[in-house]
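[User] Could I get a sequence and structure tokens?

[Assistant]
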Amino acid sequence: MKLQAKLNTLALLLLLASTGTAAAALAQDAPQKPQTPLTDGPTVSSSPLTPGTERLEPDDVQTPSTDVSTEMQANRREQRSEEEAAVLPYYNNYLTTYRLGPEDVISVTVFGQDRYSRNGITVPPNGRINYPLIAEGILVAGKTTEQVAEELTRRLDEYIIDPKITVALEKAQSARYSVLGDVAQPGIHIMTRRLSVYEALAEAGGVLNTGDKSKVMILRRQADGTLRPIRVNIKEIESGRAREMAFLVPGDQVIVPGNTFKKIKGIMDMLPIISFARIFTGGW
């Protein structure tokens, strides 16, 4: 029995030895594949880059290109600041000096008190608007928005603790001026902003070729009721020789007189009438 067991063990060892030799032979005959080393990072493709392209590394930053230099951008910002500094006083001067009148539209804002704020208040012909807590209303005609805000603050101080009130002009309708004489569109216009005499003439269609630009006249009513003439030379303004620009105030009348060409044109227009009249008077 012992001998038989030893023979079985020897046969098993020979079988295992032969199997290992065959496996080694098969492995040697199989084609060898290149081994790729394992890495912790992502796999990078080994395909060649397209000519003309450039691969960005992870820490590379791609900045957008611009055609405007830093100096040019600074000049643009400086130019915008200069334009705002020139334009804002131009309009603020008109708004701070504007006197309210009939048909103007204003708004009243009371900070923290929405029930006392009002929008779209149209000034009636008597110049007095209705307002909560003020039985008789408040007279606004002839006053600036700042003066109206000061009066409302004083009147509401007994009802509201430390009231903060702002009055704004929403639409200017009462300020008017007229342009008469040799212009394309004479008539009365509404002054919604600070207006120069040159702009007023432009809005009236411009001066006709029969108008005298060197003798334009502004008639301005004084406190005593008289009209003071102010002469303006538009030719000097157009050529840049004028020292300052003339601005209008509500109620101004701009008059453009006729020139020599207008007188000659008037005479030429009268010639056919005179010739026709001479036929009946025996002038031939």
Notes: The domain at 97-171 is CATH 3.30.1950.10 (wza like fold). DSSP finds six helices and ten strands in the chain. Strands lie at 105-110, 118-122, 128-131, 134-139, 165-171, 176-181, 187-190, 216-221, 227-232, 253-256.
